[in-house]
Design brief:
CATH class: Alpha Beta
Strand order of the largest sheet: 1-2-3-4-5
Structural class: alpha+beta
Strand content: 25-35%
CATH architecture: 2-Layer Sandwich
Length: 93
């Protein structure tokens, strides 16, 4: 039997994560460049930071959320449903 993640397998909850992330990004005065499906049927949000750094939030179907930035150095953080909002909020201050 395939493991089901109780939060992420619920499509309305994934949409809520997406909506919360978009509202947070926009509340910081940033614009969303794109919202697209990812290769594994997840959801990807791409935007630029106040310093014009490329940023991406990807919500995977297996329950992982990744926050990625790219300047001279590429950085990525694995987040969870429980900590993604606070992490992104602190990062894009």
């Amino acid at each position: 039997m395939l493991y089901k993640h109780p939060i992420i397998d619920d499509f309305p909850v994934r949409v809520k994560i997406l909506e919360n992330a978009v509202k947070l990004i926009e509340s910081k005065g940033l614009s969303i460049d794109m919202i697209n499906p990812s290769q594994d049927e997840g959801i990807m949000i791409e935007f630029r930071s106040k310093n014009n750094e490329y940023c991406m939030v990807e919500i995977f179907n297996d329950g992982n959320i990744v926050f990625l930035t790219r300047t001279e150095v590429r950085s990525a953080w694995n987040l969870t449903y429980d900590n993604y909002y606070e992490f992104i909020d602190q990062w894009i201050k």
